[in-house]
Each structure stands twice: as C-alpha cells, then as structure tokens.
Write a structure and sequence with these properties.
Structural class: mainly alpha
Number of domains: 1
Number of strands: 0
Largest sheet: none
Shape: globular
Radius of gyration: 18 Å
Number of helices: 14
Strand content: under 5%
Order of helices and strands: HHHHHHHHHHHHHH
Length: 261
Amino acid sequence: MIRYYFLASLLPTSLTLGSTPDIPLWEFNQLCKQNLNDADLKKMQAIRRYIDIQNLRPLWQRKDLDPHGNYTSKELETHLLLEEGFPDYVFEFLRQHESIEERLDFFPKLLSQFYEEEITQSKHFLKNFLIFERTWRFVIMAMRTKTFKRDLTWELQYEDPHEECVELIVAQKDHNEFIPPEGYEELKKIYDEFKFEPLKLHWEVCQWRLKKIPTLVEGGSFSVDNILCYLSQLIIVENWLKLNHDQGMIIVENIMKEQQV
C-alpha cells in the first residue's frame, strides 16, 4: 500500500462540526490531484459519486446541487447526454425510466443500485465506509417506520431481502422495539431522544458519524484510507456549515426520502 507522507501530514487530526475546516474541499481536491495515484483518485471519486447520483434529482427538478460531487450541473448534463462519467448501472436506470417523472418516482432504486454495485467492487476503508453509510440509513429508516407507522415492505422494496441488515430489520417488523445491528446502539439512543427535533437529530447523527468513520480505517496514518477518511468527514462538516435553520429543520426528511421518493 502506497504511503502518502506529505499529504497525510498536512491534514488536521480531527474535524469539528460547526467549525470551518482548515483545508476546505476545493483545496483538498487540488492536493489530492497532485499527490494521489490514479487508482486512489478513483476511490475519492467513488465516495463523491453518491453525491453525483443524489444530484441528479435536483438537476431534473431545476434545484441547487450539493457542491461536493465530482461534477457541476453542466458537467452532469453533458455526461448524461454522452453516457459517460458514470458506471453502466446509472445509464441502464435512465434507459429503463425515460421520463423525468418516472426517474423521480423510482429514484430510490438507483440509490440502492449504487450501494450494491460500489460495495461489491470496493475494499478496505472504501468498502467499510459504504457499508456503514448504507447501514445507518437503514437503521434510521427502520426506527422512523415504527415511529410513523409506515409500510416497511414498501420502504425496502428495492433492497436485497437476503442482505444481512435488511433481514434483521424485516425480522423485527412486528416487534414493538427495534434492536439495531451491533455497533449502532448509540444511534438508536440518539434517535429515541431527538426523533421529534429534526435539526438536533441531524446534528447528533453527524457528530456520531464523525466519531465512527475513523474506526473504519484499515491502513495507517499515511495510507489512502486516512485520506479517504478525511474526505468523508470533510463533506459532513461542510454540508452542516451551509445549512440554514429552515433547511436544517427538513434535512432528516430529505435524507429519508432516499428510501421513499
């Protein structure tokens, strides 16, 4: 495994929610382009690809995009037109669902395909991170389903029923109390305490994610794993900073619409 001594030594030892990062994403991107090899740059792109795919929805709705993806709105439009810049499963989805209305209706299917495809192809921190991101969303979804008496089967309609976390959730669909997977007990406590306070819930979940993400690193301090860890935490911190109060009050609903729209 390649060691990135120079780049890793520049990165802060930690990032704080609510504080401006010493190295913002635009500067971090430049450093990575100058120091990482092509294979490791592709790992960075994979983390940001989730945002690119998420950005397709506001692109079709003519709304503002999350700036943390790999592409601007014009670049997204060009890549979609030329069928480039995304994995094949994205264009297969677009061919299956040709109208904007249909693409929006079936959008959770595309997000499910992202995790399925990318987890299969990744390893080390990237794989751990994608599994973690997928799992905590499942856990929140399962608890919200119970709180608001939603149809669990409908919520999971695009997921593999044999996937471990999905099986665990479905097995508890008739239980009064949801028991989360090992390692997600604290997330349940956070949800139980703040489930009716969306802004506070989002803050606490972000704090929890920032704390958990470094535990997913397999390499040492100078490995690409550590670089990818900083990127994933940086996106969380910068996204919090750009929220205003009104956006914050609906952010949890927006996150969960990944499973619902």
